[in-house]
Amino acid sequence: MKKKLKTIIVGTGGMARNHLNNMLDQKRSTQVQAFVEISEESRNKVQEIYTQRRIKCPNFYDSIKSLLKNEPKPDAAFIITPHKYHFENTSDCLNAGLDVLLEKPMVMNTKEAKKLIKLRDKTQKILVVAFPGSLSPAIQKAKKVITNGVIGQINGVCAFAHQRWKSLSQGSWRQEPDISGGGFLFDTGSHMINSMVDLMGQPISEVTACFDNSCTKVDINGAVIGRFSSGQFFSLSAVGDSINCDGTIRIFGDKGILETGIWGKYLKLLKEGETEYKPVSFPKSTGVWEQFLKVLNGKIENPCPAEVGLRFSQLMDMITLSAKNGKTTQAKQVR
């Protein structure tokens, strides 16, 4: 890209500020033009970042509409708002002719996901969902390892995610289902689900799930078992009332076992006849924004298009239905 990409950031909460620091380190390729944020507290924290770096902070606006009216047209938008507003915010930016990087999960449900795909196709703009796993070179390398038969025939998958999510999200929008769309599994657990399905490259045919809300409005702890269309079983454990924040995925083959984190930060392999896992090398990346720039530049195909967001929404609909009914949900029950 010969000129800097001019981007706006919609939403400047804690996660957004983490992304912002990374983006500001990529000053040769990126110009953060303006922000949309209504919280004075969040605005002040963003201004502190710019003060520490001794650079001028861009303007803040109360809405995307107001920003577009008062600023030169940007090239792109990074949307990092609460889940309920993803669909509206992304629609506004696509209709304004902007390419979009959208925080996970893409939208609240399958209906919104399908509408967003239609709008993306209509506007012919690029939409990338910011699932770190799908955008991780480690996950891409792992898929090649699997495809090349290094671990042989895959016979099972297991994964877990844990975090002190219940107490950390207490009193926030994350525990309000009308805004969040779900609890721990829909939030942090979405990384585990998405990366697992990405690695396998197969649709899921059935799931059985159970949730424990732990005296809150949303799921905190949960377990899911299921089967891929190719026959392999998988199991997921989501523990949102624990310590730290971590997650692991293991793919079990008859010639080896492949392990990675749910965010795709590492990759290691245990081969048949060996006793210790060995690291597998992969290209390094600074994160989702760098990968978004590569997509825009045509250096890579979009690893996480809106179809990935739809896939996740459909699977979460299956899981939620199973947990509600106490029965196995077949893929044909959710469209």
Itemize the secondary structure elements and their pairings.
Elements: E1 5-10, H1 14-24, E2 30-36, H2 40-53, E3 59-61, H3 64-70, E4 76-79, H4 86-95, E5 99-103, H5 110-123, E6 127-130, H6 137-147, E7 154-163, H7 165-168, H8 177-180, H9 189-200, E8 204-212, E9 221-228, E10 233-239, E11 245-253, E12 256-261, E13 267-271, E14 278-279, H10 288-296, H11 306-325, E15 329-330
Parallel strand pairs: 1-2, 1-4, 2-3, 4-5, 5-6, 7-10
Antiparallel strand pairs: 7-11, 8-9, 8-15, 9-10, 11-12, 12-13, 13-14
Helix pairs in contact: 4-5, 5-11, 6-9
Describe the fold and architecture:
With 335 residues, this protein is an alpha/beta fold. It has two domains: 5-125, 3-Layer(aba) Sandwich (Rossmann fold), CATH 3.40.50.720; 137-284 and 305-333, Dihydrodipicolinate Reductase, domain 2 (2-Layer Sandwich), CATH 3.30.360.10. It contains eleven helices and 15 strands. The protein has helices spanning 14-24, 40-53, 64-70, 86-95, 110-123, 137-147, 165-168, 177-180, 189-200, 288-296, 306-325, and strands spanning 5-10, 30-36, 59-61, 76-79, 99-103, 127-130, 154-163, 204-212, 221-228, 233-239, 245-253, 256-261, 267-271, 278-279, 329-330. Helix 4 packs parallel to helix 5, helix 5 (110-123) runs antiparallel to helix 11 and helix 6 (137-147) runs parallel beside helix 9. The mean pLDDT is 97.
